[in-house]
Amino acid sequence: MSEAKWYVVHTYSGYENKVKANIEKTIENRHLEDQILEVRVPLQDVMEMKNGSARQVQKKMFPGYVLLNMIMNDDTWYVVRNTRGVTGFVGPGSKPVPLTEAEMMPLGIQQESNIRIDFAPGDAVVVTGGAWANTTGVVTAINMTKRVVTINVELFGRETPVEISFSEIRKA
After folding, report:
1. How high is the mean pLDDT of the chain?
2. Residues 104, 170, 5: CA angle, nearest 5 degrees
3. Pairwise CA distance, residues 65 & 141, whole Å
4. Any idea of the CA torsion for 33, 35, 37, 39, to the nearest 10 degrees?
5. Which of 10, 41, 94, 149 has its CA 20 to 30 A from that of 128?
6. Distance between CA 16 and CA 21 in Å, rounded?
């Protein structure tokens, strides 16, 4: 079995999030979770001036494009290519070209590396960054492909599951 690589898909402008949702729904329906690992619309933080006040907003880095981490084969190519809003893969003709390591670096995407984590489901962890910083929760699930853990945190008096990146947690 070949390894997963990052590919770029061209979409109708403004349809990036819709294409992402459609591909994710198709992955779920056709049980392709082991072949199409991740779908991303790269965003960047931009300061925007409106009515004299500055505020930080997220803008698409590449309008009209979606990134896919997938194992390229006839099935996955067909599924992605025939998703509503997709005009095609980036590459010559009908042959998609994967992104190189150098092209992925500015996007903040690292190649797969062997990650060792020191927590397991049932362990208490402390969130060290993001919106949930300094929150303690219990690990309920670990997703190695997405590099996130699902923890239960207390929100408005009840337990709520939240996905947190590996880099933003430590064992309590």
Report:
1. 84
2. 20
3. 31
4. -100
5. 41
6. 9
Please give the structure tokens belonging to residue 66: 């979606």
Tokens of 103: 């092209």
Radius of gyration of the chain from its Cα atoms, rounded to whole angstroms: 18
pTM value?
Answer: 0.60
Phi and psi for 23 in degrees, rounded to 5? -65, -45
Render pLDDT for 41-90 as a digit per residue (tens, 0 to 9). Answer: 888 888 888 887 888 888 888 889 999 999 999 899 999 999 999 999 98
CATH of 5-107, one of 3.20.20.330, 1.10.10.10, 1.10.287.70, 3.30.70.940: 3.30.70.940
